[in-house]
Design goal:
Shape: elongated
Largest sheet: 6 strands, mixed
Keywords: ATP-binding, Nucleotide-binding, Transport
CATH topology of the largest domain: Rossmann fold
CATH class of the largest domain: Alpha Beta
Distance between the termini: 40 Å
GO molecular function, one term: ATP binding
Protein name: ABC transporter ATP-binding protein
Strand content: 25-35%
Pfam families: ABC_tran
Family: Belongs to the ABC transporter superfamily.
Bound molecules: adenosine-5'-triphosphate
Number of helices: 11
Radius of gyration: 24 Å
């Protein structure tokens, strides 16, 4: 499948700080690429370079194989984008804002305004002034403007910002529909793994300007760590028994009273055979009062990945 978005050693330095550091991205046709990173990781800067809004210090960006750069305006013809909060004319209605975009884009079909209003479920707000929209609906209007010319590539910087859970689900469904049924290639950034990972075909995690992890969306589930949570009347004694038997025991943060929270072990054999742990503790005179398997959630995985690469996560 053809490569629709790519970067090679893309780098941006501001003063002494390298905010995007030799990033290599490759997004194929029909992919939904989740570009993830904490605040300040370098997502927007990368996206701005892809869109030609700022010039890289070194490295290149390509859209549909064409190099992004001055004098090559054709590169963005097939691209729709949102970078940060989308701007709309505040005193014009949703419909009027979209009509302006239609004319600016030189789209002949007048019906596309109606089409996009319907697609983004903006019918009830079509006559509302943009300044009176909720943040979520303003975001929806931004997506509508980005999509009206039916681009082959959509680049969306934090499109779920300000949306309520139902709005997030709608954006997810919309992106899935565009990728699956119209072959649109999507690059979508977020600082929350669970908001978009469910629909992505690939994920890239950027931290302090470096792309620290690339993972196939389908593999993600299998990378989530499982733990066995253990509790009993005497946590210290249980911890000592498990440690002496060779298990690495994790304790969650201590509470303010200094009391230990339930214990955790991540040993694969123990997670797969919790009855072995139960037998061990019963035989040692400390029967467990709790034994359950817990799976890491996506947010925990995201933060762990960053921490494992030496990242500082507050
Ligand atoms: N024009 C600029 N001059 C100096 N530093 C900048 C400039 N633009 C961005 N930065 C810095 O570059 C780093 C990356 O910023 P960027 O906006 O790309 O991060 P981000 O991952 O998009 O974060 P967020 O989710 O908060 O938007 C930040 O430390 C930011 O302060």
């Amino acid at each position: 499948m053809s490569e629709m978005i790519s970067t090679t050693n893309l780098t941006k330095v501001y003063g002494e700080t390298c905010v995007v550091d030799k990033v290599n991205l490759s997004v194929k046709q029909g992919d939904i690429f989740g570009f993830l990173g904490l605040n300040g990781a370098g997502k927007t800067t990368t996206i701005r370079m892809l869109l030609g809004m700022i010039t890289p210090t070194s490295g290149q960006c390509y859209l549909q194989g064409q190099r992004v750069g001055a004098g090559n305006t054709d590169t963005w013809r097939d691209v729709g984008y949102i970078v940060e909060t989308p701007y709309s004319y505040p005193d014009l209605t949703v419909k009027e804002n979209l009509e302006i975009v239609r004319q600016l884009r030189g789209i002949q079909e007048k019906s596309c305004v109606h089409w996009i209003i319907k697609k983004l479920k903006l019918e009830d707000y079509a006559s509302k002034k943009a300044k009176h929209l909720s943040l979520g609906n303003a975001q929806r209007l931004g997506i509508a403007k980005a999509m009206m010319h039916k681009p082959k590539i959509l680049i969306l910087d934090e499109p779920t910002n300000g949306l309520d859970p139902a709005g997030i689900v709608e954006v997810r469904q919309l992106l899935m529909d565009l990728a699956k049924n119209s072959g649109v290639t999507v690059l979508v950034s977020s600082h929350k793994l669970d908001e978009i990972s469910r629909i992505t075909t690939n994920i890239g995690i950027i931290h302090e300007g470096k792309l620290i992890k690339e993972i196939d969306g389908k593999q993600l589930e299998s990378q989530l760590k499982k733990s066995l949570i253990i509790d009993g009347r005497d946590r210290l004694a249980i911890k000592s028994i498990l440690s002496k038997t060779g298990y690495k025991v994790y304790t969650q943060d201590k509470s303010t009273t200094g009391e230990l929270f339930p214990l955790q072990i991540q040993n694969e054999d123990a997670v797969n055979n919790p009855e072995k742990i139960a037998t061990l503790l019963v035989n040692a005179g400390h029967p467990p009062t709790l034994l359950k398997i817990e799976k890491e959630d996506l947010e925990m995985y995201f933060l762990r990945t960053i921490k494992e690469r030496g990242g500082d996560v507050k």
